[in-house]
Amino acid sequence: MSESPSELKTLKEIAETLNQGNDLQIVLNEVLKKLLDLTGFKTGWIFLVADNGTFELAAHSALPEALSWENCRLMCDSNCYCIDQYWNGRLKSATNIINCERIYHAIKQKTGDTEGITHHATVPLRDQKKRFGLLNVASPNKNQYSEKELALLEAVALQIGTAVKRIRLSEIEQQNVVLKERNRLAQDLHDSVNQILFSISLTAKAARETTLDESLLEQLNFIQLLSRDALAEMKSLIWELRSEGLKNGIVEAIENYASLIGLPVELTVTGSIALSAKEEELIWRITQEALNNCKKHSQADKAFVTIISLKGQLLLEIEDFGIGFRYDPDAQIHSLGIKGMEDRTKKYGGKFSVKTAKNKGTKIRVALPIISPEKEEKGS
Ligand SMILES: Nc1ncnc2c1ncn2[C@@H]1O[C@H](COP(=O)(O)OP(=O)(O)OP(=O)(O)O)[C@@H](O)[C@H]1O
Ligand SMILES: [Mg+2]
């Protein structure tokens, strides 16, 4: 199809508008206004449809009173043939919708002036691969859209679809940057403040050996206790900072974390696991700490994480084939990672064990009783 100069101008201006921002809602509203200006259609609206089939009114412009009634209630609550056709897969290209079901409801419910709108044209929003919404336009007393108009709408819908995809990808990128930053902050706190507190604790310990003065001993003891408490506080803050990222489930969280810290991880999940939020959080935090340890101490170039659900039990193993534990007397004082994993597991009624052998590697094993989410809700 060869576009006329005015169509080319429309496509060019739409492309420019779409390139002007990264906020989906603002961009969609702007582009809709621009489309109406350029084409002369009176009103338009965009639905975004999620993978689970739910739809949201993502943008609208110059809706008649009957449809903008009560904060666009009819646009959000009731259905229309366009959404039905989208759902049943019949809406493949730009189409004339015979009449708008929402307008029909609006007239029945007397929600206001329809401003002559009875029909709309509808086009699926898509990129090259996937559909993810609808663009609708309408004009007063217009019940037929020409082939040319529909072809233009289709080209615009493809442009909008590609922009929606670009914006969504940039949102994901943005979230990853935030996650990375939180992780870096956690690491910095760990490496700087933790080390200072650790030194205070060690210095107080050493100073105690040099005096017999009772009151001085007491104060040094106090300093040691305080710095230990501060270390524990710091550690829990670091756990908090790292706990972001669980939104899309444990598997994605572990994979993302592994790539954030630059440690290849082979993850195996066996059995169907419906974890409660508490279980998921516990597994996530333990896995993070164990992977962190692999990265920091094991010298292994890979870690293996296995999650198995078996007869009301959940087994989590994090294994590496690195150098194994080296005896470090200082680590007894400041190391809170393993202790944190063990305490949290026991608090949950589970069993915790560490197996380690020189130059053979380390395996952390956690066995948890699974509490179904319903039981947990009733119990809590
Ligand atoms: N996968 C591993 N391979 C080799 N050594 C390990 C491994 N995991 C832990 N260790 C050893 O066990 C010690 C205790 O680990 P732990 O996680 O409790 O403390 P940490 O990592 O030194 O400090 P932090 O309190 O920041 O976690 C480590 O200092 C390290 O010597
Ligand atoms: Mg550790």
UniProtKB/TrEMBL annotation:
First-level EC class: transferase
Entry EC number(s): 2.7.13.3
Reaction catalysis annotation: ATP + protein L-histidine = ADP + protein N-phospho-L-histidine
CDD domains the UniProt entry points to: HATPase_UhpB-NarQ-NarX-like
A single MF term (Gene Ontology): protein dimerization activity
Range of residues in the leader sequence: none
SMART domains: GAF
Keyword annotations from UniProtKB, A to Z: Kinase, Transferase, Two-component regulatory system
Any one Pfam family match given in the protein's UniProt record, by short name: HisKA_3
Keyword Signal attributed: no
Domain of life: Bacteria
Residue ranges of every copy of the GAF domain listed in the record: 23-174
SUPFAM superfamilies reported in the protein's UniProt record: ATPase domain of HSP90 chaperone/DNA topoisomerase II/histidine kinase (SSF55874), GAF domain-like (SSF55781)
GO CC terms in record: membrane
Protein name listed in UniProt: histidine kinase
